[in-house]
Amino acid sequence: MTTPTAPTTPTAPTTGSLRVPGATLHYQVRGDGPLLLLIPGGTGGAAAFDNVIDALAAEYTVAAYDPRGISRSTLDDPEADQQVAEHADDAFRLLQLLSPGEPARVFGTSSGAITALHLLTAHPESVERLVAHEPPVVEVLPDAAEHRAFLATVQETFHAQGLMPAMAVFAAGLQKAGATANGDATPPRAAAEIELPPQAAARAEQTMAGLPYFLGRIVPSFMGYAPDIRLLEELADRLVLAGGQDSHGELPYRPAAYLARQLGVELSHFPGGHTGLTTHPEQFAEHLRKALST
């Protein structure tokens, strides 16, 4: 039985950079113990984990990084297309650097969870346990064709009208998908109803700066990605699929629930919705700690 660790004063992380093909990755490391690699989604980068990293660092050596093209991780070619396999290779190279020869625990959320799923199937020897929180791999769903058409509309709007109209179409489509799946019984909570912690609110400027790259090059390739279900079945004993307690039926939740049924594993429910990491950091960290050690 693990003895609870007394709270400690947070220490400054060790930061570094890693050259990978086509990019330079910025990463930070904190804590002591077995390696836990955190892969963020969206445009938040490593800062998305600011409110949970200290709780996890009491038990793990926690590494978080900015995915290529996000925040401090720069691309050699700013216009380069982005592929899930390439992002997963970045994660693998970080594992080789920080935990050479030893498998690590990995957590990914949203698009970061898609990266993590590919990492698991491409390099299973490097992953001891993976928690994938709401990976929006809509290609696994029976109604994938509808989502393909929706994503095409988002891209058409982006190129014809610009970022904010496209984001409006994107957000409305995610809500519509959730309402349809729920029979309009439990519509998603509006963003205005959620009070964000001060650190999260302060990251809004970075989030906005990264949106053109995210919407234009991450969303199409990542949400068009189809994981290898056969390989995931073989590796299901080290995979935890997670969904938000408040996001039942919403589009990012549905692939996680569907994959869990396909693989014959239980779907783990984490606090909050798709952004529970931000809105419920303390409870989220505790659920993640348990999921990693089960």
UniProtKB/TrEMBL annotation:
Record keyword Chloroplast present: no
Molecular function via GO: hydrolase activity
Keyword Transport: no
Keywords assigned by UniProt, alphabetized: Hydrolase
Superkingdom per UniProt: Bacteria
Matching PANTHER family: AB HYDROLASE-1 DOMAIN-CONTAINING PROTEIN (PTHR43433:SF5), HYDROLASE, ALPHA/BETA FOLD FAMILY PROTEIN (PTHR43433)
Entry protein name: Alpha/beta fold hydrolase
